[in-house]
Amino acid sequence: MSDARRFGRVAEDGTVYVRTRDGERPVGSWHAGPAEDGLAFYARKYDELATEVDLLASRVAAGSGNPATTRERAVKLREGLGEAHVVGDLDALAARLDALVVAADERKVATAAERERRAAEAVAAKTRLAEEAERLADSDDWKASSERFRALTAQWRDVHGVDRRTDNELWARVSAARKSFDRRRKEHFASVDEQRRQAQARKEALVAQAEELAGSSDWAATATRLKELMAEWKRAGRASREVDDALWARFRATQDRFFARRSEVYAERDAAFRANQDVKEALLAEAEALDASTDLAGAQRRLREIQQRWAAAGPVPRDMVGVLEKRLGAVEERVRAAAQVQWRRADRSSSPLLVRLRESVGKLEGRVERARAAGDTRAAAEAEAALATQRAWLEQAERS
User: Which residues are within 8 A (CB) of 248 and not within 5 positions of it... i.e. 6 or more apart?
Assistant: First the structure.
């Protein structure tokens, strides 16, 4: 009420006045009771007006609503203050409305700038999507690129604020890129289908050749040919999965039948070689018992005898050849090592050349014996020739 009395009064005739810096003017009349009630009535109207101004100010401050609409309402309120039927600080309210108009103008400019910024960002985003689509158009990663095109289209729909003309132009680029990709993809898979048909024809021919060989008893030549067919199979490419799997099953079954028959024959032959294995295992027991550290000459003599008997014993089952040869080789290496130790002890002044020649002679002697034991005459002849040369060099070096 104190503000109401400061900014207004009720005259004796009931006229209600409001005071401003320009003086006072009547805003209404009051005859329904005490003057204080009249002032309170018109003060409440002022409060309602001030509340609306507060609401407009909060919208501008928060950046909500349309700033143009807010400005329009503020101007209308400002223009109506001179005739407002209220009692209160109209000068302060006028100042607030003037400031509100300025703020609304500023907000309008800022909103327009923000709208332009967002539009520019939207254009930039869709431009990036269009550029990405054009890059994808040349991709050969068909699956990943197809998925990316679908995701890119979904992203496109989520970007708003681009003007229609620009949006249509950018979308035309995306659409053209997608069409180009789809065309290349169709051409690629058409080519793949043709390659698969050719691969199917080649593999059917390979299966037919393999099936003709399945009953052969020419074990070495047929095994070699089947391996060649396998290499051709790998180079033939892939047919469709279902066809390729069926052809492979036939091809593999044919090979399995041949190698199963060969294994049966080899198993029978290996059984006949078991007696030779027993002889060589007995020889190994003798060889492994040799003690070259105490009687090198005797161990070398006994080892040569064992090697000769080993060669005469004949072949053993294939799965035992490597095992037995490895054990004999270990004995030979042990005897050679003992000889080298004795040579170093007996003649510490020997030159490095003599040492190397003696080592070479020892290794070649072992190679000759192993080749003979394996029945490899060609390797034995080559090793003997090299051994003769090394022995001649060693004798010449020892005489000099």
Answer: 203
